[in-house]
Each structure stands twice: as structure tokens, then as C-alpha cells.
Design brief:
Blueprint: H1 2-13, H2 18-38, H3 41-53
Helix pairs in contact: 1-2, 1-3, 2-3
Amino acid sequence: MTRLRLDEARARRRSASVAVRAEARGLARTALGTAEELGMAAVARDCREFLRDAPAGP
């Protein structure tokens, strides 16, 4: 499920809508928290990378 959230965030990041891209960051943050709680290091790393690389604004 955590990997699916990250995949959904990646798909939303490509949207033209600023609101949808903001939702992508929220999904990635949720996935990161879940991955850290469950000890899923590879997924947590991917989430951090997504959040670092994702544009913060429009």
C-alpha cells in the first residue's frame, strides 16, 4: 500500500493543476510516515527522494 501511495504521488506530480501536485506531496508524506513506521527503508528512501525532487510551488 505504501508503494502504491508513492506511485500515485508520482502520477499526480505530472498534473497541470497546482492543487493536484500539492496532493502528490501529501501522499508522499503519508507514504513516508507509513514506510518509516513499518521499517520499509527502500520505500522511505524513495519517498524522501520524491519530496526532495518534487517542485514545492507552481
